[in-house]
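Progress note, sequence design subtask.
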C-alpha cells in the first residue's frame, strides 16, 4: 500500500508501536478450521473460517462474531 501525504512519517506512524496486538488462535471445531479470538478459558469469538468447503460459510452456526464454547486440549 502506498500512502501519499504531506505529513512527516513520524506523525503518520506516531503511536503505532504502542497499539495492542490482537491475539488470534486457530481452532478445529467439528472438523472446521477457524481463526478465533479467545475471550476466556472456554469461550472464543469467531474471526474467520479457514475452511475450503463453501457449505461451511453458509452455516449460520459459524458466522464471524459468534461466540463459541470449546474444551481446550493439552498437548
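Output:
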Amino acid at each position: 500500500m502506498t500512502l501519499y501525504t504531506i505529513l512527516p512519517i513520524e506523525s503518520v506512524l506516531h503511536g503505532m508501536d504502542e497499539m495492542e496486538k490482537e491475539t488470534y488462535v486457530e481452532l478445529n471445531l467439528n472438523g472446521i478450521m477457524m481463526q478465533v479470538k479467545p475471550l476466556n478459558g472456554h469461550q472464543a469469538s469467531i474471526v474467520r473460517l479457514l475452511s475450503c468447503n463453501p457449505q461451511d460459510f453458509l452455516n449460520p452456526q459459524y458466522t464471524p462474531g459468534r461466540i463459541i464454547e470449546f474444551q481446550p486440549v493439552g498437548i
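The mean pLDDT is 87. Work on this subtask will continue into the next period as scheduled.
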